[in-house]
Amino acid sequence: MKNQKNVVIAALTAVLLAIAVLLYASPYIALHSIKKALDNKDTAALSQFVDYPVLRENMKAKLMSSMGSKLPSAATDSDNPLANIGQAIGGMVIGVAVDNLVSPQGVLMMMDSGYFGPKFPSSAQPPADQGASGGSAQDPDKSRSLSLNYQGFDKVRVFRKSAPENAFIFRRDGLMGWKLINVDARGM
């Protein structure tokens, strides 16, 4: 009787430990699938890991906040009657730009390059040319390698080792799934 009780306790402990390991490893498993989708340029596979409506809203809010801190507003600059018009036009432009960028192809481009806009640093090449260089001095696998940091139980920050200042924020979706919900870029 006592031996059966020990076996049951050992089995339950093993199951709980396995579940804990799977929960911890789930973003790494998702990251492996994301890398595979990026290598294959598979927007459908990558889209499984993106919450497009939340990503759009978060990017718009971040850009609107950044624009608001750089442009004068009517509340702070009463001598400028066009401040509200500038804010409104800027908001429309940001809305259209984010709507166009946060698409399956746009997210693939962002994640493949590691950058959140049309500019690429001089040391990086656009995604289409990365594999074509063949004999380049920079190892493309090293510059494209992704890493992640936990930001809590349900949030991770995924970044390229070559550009850790630009990151993708993923939130847990269920127990094992992960969805891209935001980007973290310096200067954005």
Estimated structural class: alpha+beta
Cα Rg: 22 Å
**What is the number of helical segments per DSSP (H or I, 4+ residues)?**
7
Percent of residues in beta strands:
15-25%
Outline = elongated
- Count the E strands: 4
Q: The biggest beta sheet, please?
A: 4 strands, antiparallel
Average pLDDT value? 80
Helix content, binned percent: 40-55%
Description:
By secondary structure, this protein is α+β, with helices and mostly antiparallel strands. Helix content is 53%, strand content 17%. A 4-stranded antiparallel β-sheet has the order 1-2-3-4. Helix 3 (52-70) packs antiparallel against helix 4. It is elongated and about 85 Å long. Residues 118-138 have low confidence and may be disordered.
Quick structural gist:
With 188 residues, this protein is an alpha+beta fold. The chain contains 7 helices and 4 strands; from the N terminus they run H-H-H-H-H-H-H-E-E-E-E.
List its traits:
4 strands; 7 helices; elongated; 188 residues; alpha+beta; four-stranded antiparallel β-sheet; single chain
Tell me the layout of helices and strands.
Blueprint: H1 2-40, H2 43-47, H3 52-70, H4 83-101, H5 104-113, H6 127-130, H7 140-143, E1 146-152, E2 155-160, E3 163-173, E4 177-184
